[in-house]
Amino acid sequence: MAFKDGDFLEVDYSAWDATTKELIATTDEKAAKEGNLYHKDHAYGPTLVILGSNSVIKGLDRELRSMDLNQMKKFTFSPQDAFGEHMDDLVRVMPLADFRARDIKPYPGMRVEIENMSATVKSVNSGRVVVDANHPYAGRDIVYEVRVVKSLTTPNDKIVALGGTYGVKPSSVSLNGKSVTLVYDSKVRKNADYFLGKSSFVASILSLMKDFDNVEVKEDFDRAEIEKQSKEREQNA
After folding, report:
1. Beta partners for 129?
2. Across-strand partners of 152?
3. Residues 207 and 226 in one domain
4. Are residues 58 and 114 in the same domain?
5. Which pTM value belongs to this model?
6. Domain identity same for 143 and 63
7. Domain identity same for 108 and 146
8. Same domain, yes or no: 24 and 112
9. Which residues contact 200 (CB under 8 A, 6 or more apart)?
10. Domain range for 69
11. Cα distance between residue 177 and residue 206, in whole Å
């Protein structure tokens, strides 16, 4: 089976640093626990990959196109097909005072935002902080074990899956010509993450699904449900 640009695939995968054998990403909850990569708030299971949209590394995007459904394959990607070569000019030395002025206490391994770039703190000493804006796995060969679980072909399935990637899966979807209506009932938590995710979700529909020109969002807010969710948050805090 040959897949192409714009195809929506649900994919299971695990990825390792080829040298250290460290597990760096996985869709498998059991593997995450065994590899000390487990996060209780992460949703495990097949992830959505949209070919040609830069949703995965270049090498994996290329290899997925020639895979069959339910076929398991293992690939080793060089840096240029994975997370890029390590660039020395992205490593900087900054005064510790710059961090203190922002009320940040840097430590090795900490991720920080510097001049609109994400960087990793490499060391802190003598009033200086070394930060690296390269991807954490830049310059490394990466091993992927991959299985294509499903190819999504209907607009409804694509939209629901896309919403899931932003954590805002709609309660229901209806299509009418070039218009999409997304419904979020009162049981959907309308917190800050919801509003941010919803905005990105709508933008992605219009960017990735050229058959649609308009997206309408219908939201239901119920006092009893909001109060229930608020109590649950307080109990879990």
Report:
1. 94, 124
2. 8
3. yes
4. no
5. 0.84
6. yes
7. no
8. no
9. 166
10. 1-85+138-152
11. 14
If 0-12 CB within 10 Å is exposed, 13-18 middle and 19+ buried, where does residue 168 land? buried
Q: Quick one: tokens of 126?
A: 């003598």
Q: How many domains does the chain have?
A: 3
* DSSP track, 38-59: --TTS--S-EEEETTTTSS-HH
Residue listed under structure tokens 């040298």: 19
CA–CA distances in Å: residue 68 to residues 149, 157, 162: 9, 20, 22
Do 110 and 81 reside in the same domain of the chain? no
Nearest 10 degrees: Cα torsion 26, 33, 165, 69:
40
- Find the CATH number of the domain harbouring 92: 2.40.10.330
Query: What does each of the 237 residues of the chain score in pLDDT, given as a tens digit?
Result: 689 999 999 999 999 999 999 999 999 999 999 999 999 988 899 999 999 999 999 999 999 999 999 999 999 999 999 999 999 999 999 999 999 999 999 999 999 998 888 999 999 998 999 999 999 999 999 999 999 999 999 999 999 999 999 999 999 999 999 999 999 998 898 888 999 999 999 999 999 999 999 999 999 988 877 777 777 777 776
Distance CA 152, CA 234 (A): 38
Furthest-apart CA atoms within the chain: distance in Å: 64
